[in-house]
Amino acid sequence: MPDAVNLDAYLRRVGWSGPVGTDLPTLRGLAIAHVATIPFANLDPLMGLPVDLGLAALQRKLVDEGRGGYCFEQNLLFEAVLREIGFEVNGLIARVLWGHPEDVQTPQSHMLLRVELEGGSWLADVGFGGHVLTGALRLQPDIEQPTAHEPFRLLERDGEWRMQSLAHGQWRTLYRFDLRAVPMVDYVVANHYVSSHPASRFVSHLLLGRTAADRRLGLLDYEFTIRRDGREPERRLLRDVAELRDVMEGEFLLPARAVAALGDRLQGLPRT
């Protein structure tokens, strides 16, 4: 396993040609470039394949092979990139509340990053599917913060934080978390659950996401959704496997060989 990520290869992968430093413009810029070029994807869990969180495997899959991955893969890679640049960064773990009531108990199944900059702490997250944070948030509660897309904010009560985004005049919670640093073994256990447990939607549904400058793209099985700032979502049910493959390659930038490797698995996905 390499001691460090291949930074030059990563920067080429995300199309970054600007300066690189331990500053907010670099953090924000790389986060935006990352989510525009490296798609959120769960192809391996869908095929019943293990998800390797080792740095060598992450670089090979997400950088060298041009594939996508989900939160643990995305944020562990991004953490390694930030460390290689010289940032002080630690991983956190969250309970997802997106699509759930605020008081529901969900497992710790999502990773995000805390990054220290001169003057304070910031949060980054390049692995939350089609509604991922674009940029970085100052670790400060109760203030609306701009991103490259909709506004976000953080709430805090008794040491528990919630990340929210504003859409159509309504604040919605993505997840809740605390600020305790998380050892790698906890990510390994959470990754095993998300990638293989029968109750995990990652093993039974196709889930893709990518966020470009002017739109957010999401795919749940055969339902393709485009979200543009301030507009109602555009939803379309894809006709067949051929159209699904075209969207996976054309809109979510997945390599044809990765899509072809799914074989007949796409045929059996739900279509409602």
Walk me through what this model shows.
Belongs to the arylamine N-acetyltransferase family. Keywords: Transferase. One of its GO terms (molecular function) is acetyltransferase activity. InterPro entries: Arylamine_N-AcTrfase (IPR001447), Papain-like_cys_pep_sf (IPR038765). The protein is an alpha+beta fold. The protein folds into two domains: 7-177, Arylamine N-acetyltransferase fold, CATH 3.30.2140.20; 197-268, Arylamine N-acetyltransferase fold, CATH 3.30.2140.10. It has eight helices and twelve strands. Strands 5-4-3-2-8-7-6 form a seven-stranded antiparallel β-sheet. Strands 1-9-10-11-12 form a five-stranded antiparallel β-sheet. A hairpin with a 4-residue loop joins strand 9 and strand 10. Helix 4 (55-64) packs across helix 5 (71-85). It is globular and about 50 Å long.
